[in-house]
């Protein structure tokens, strides 16, 4: 382990996608940056194995295209529901790739973090930032504790909060989740499957509990290409009985639902299930203070349409790095206030519509009707994939207008639900 500088330009709390991306771009700008990662690589996370074209683009921008090429590539999304199955290729786009990958988080996060180290960042694994160092109201670093229990201070001109969805460090600075905005819970594990190398990731729109009741959420199957598939379920908090649902039972029910088609043995997963709560739609704030920025899941930067967070983690990490680069170059901390405006310009309206959509489909009757309608209309399905994946081209209608129209259609089809 490289000894961290006594004083850094930037201290990054968390070595996941957002923190590692921010550290990479800061190091590329020539700034001294240290990443504090509580665990040691390889370490697992509950979501994020499937990389969409947005994520692929940002990983390629960080010089990792060749590293990705050894993993299992996919061509698009297969949607299943109401007895139908439709394969939709990733849409063409002038900026993003037209393919995705499936990479286990046990491998991916270490690759991105070590890439930041290769660019010049310092990485402290097995160290936890237990509390901020605050002087006269300004965050000036963190008290860091090693696995052995030794505690010491690391100081920096600026701090990036990137310690994930529960963000203990962020909460100590006063961040909070907007309680009436939707969030999700997700749980997943792996099974051996003869279809492990298929070129499609699958999304099951008819998520049902053990009693066959439709729930507002979806199941997924991500072929990993190594003999296994990643199988999981996500459930929205907008469902009236959300808190009564046992997600382990829900995953078991979905595994039995897909067992025959994927050739899995539901009682024999290859590892224990992992789960997590996912704040969505930019629901955590404030996202900037006088000397700190909040990125990725710690800021709730997760797509409310589909629960994707890893691509937005890479993007917000890069945005934060650009803002801090300006602040460091100009010796003007007021540059940090550009960051919330950048997030709002990029995601504000899209996330707002996604939150509306999550509220609409929180009613099972509407979810059933939506599934019935879209699964019988390939053109509509293609638009759903473009909108939900945030892959609309600049020459197409804005995602906000389209999503509002889709939500209005759902309500019209089931006005009494």
TrEMBL record:
PANTHER family: CONDITIONED MEDIUM FACTOR RECEPTOR 1, GERANYLGERANYL DIPHOSPHATE REDUCTASE. It comes from freshwater metagenome. One of its GO terms (molecular function) is FAD binding. This is Unannotated protein. InterPro entries: FAD-bd, FAD/NAD-bd_sf, Geranylgeranyl_Rdtase_fam, Geranylgeranyl_reductase. The lineage of its organism: unclassified sequences, metagenomes, ecological metagenomes. Residues 9-339 form the FAD-binding domain. SUPFAM superfamilies: FAD/NAD(P)-binding domain. Pfam families: FAD_binding_3. Gene3D superfamilies: FAD/NAD(P)-binding domain.
